[in-house]
Here is the input.
Amino acid sequence: QTQAHATAAEKKPAGKPAGMENGAAMLGCNKGGVGRSLISQRAAASKHTLHPRALSSTSEGEKDGKKADLPPLVYDDQYIKANLGNTRVIAMVGASSNWVRPSYFAMKYLQGKGYRVIPINPGSAGKTILGEKCYKDLIEMHADGVEADMVDVFQKSEKVPAIVEQAIQIKAKVLWLQLGVRNDEACAKAEEAGMKVVQDRCPKIEYSRLYGEIGWHGI
Here is the structure.
């Protein structure tokens, strides 16, 4: 029996290096604890298809108390690059003043690439994060004369609809949902309003991947 266990152990593939089990967290762009929201049956049957999605979903609700998995979204590199290239000002919803939080690291990185990043967080409204005034929401930011090209969302998926409503009001051009954040129904509404949409991606990771900055990419 001992020999059998030893043989099985020898055949078992080597595991990932320590800390690689959650690559997204290492890259500093995953919103901790964010669940994937699921599109409703009505949205799945809608004629509106998110562009440039290569896969669609009909998943709905929960099974056995667990959220059903949605298939991955596939985006063309040129689509991602165009959205990054056409953006100058990013409103980061859920930006944190805590330097260990993924949003803080992503904000600092994007600032280093020439973007102006405006923090949006009601808990830090009126304070300064990385040299920029923080606002309670997108409407307050816009009323203060700041116009954002992109709205980058570091919030749970169920909070996306309300953010989309404000993004439409301020006439943002791009709605970008961070890793683990997905709400197809809300994003369909954003696209109907003329916005470009990217879900379940981090602009920091995509920038480093597309522009060959392997060191910052975390590998």
User: Anything to note?
Assistant: The chain has ten helices and nine strands. The two ends are 41 Å apart (CA to CA). The first strand starts at residue 62 and ends at 63.
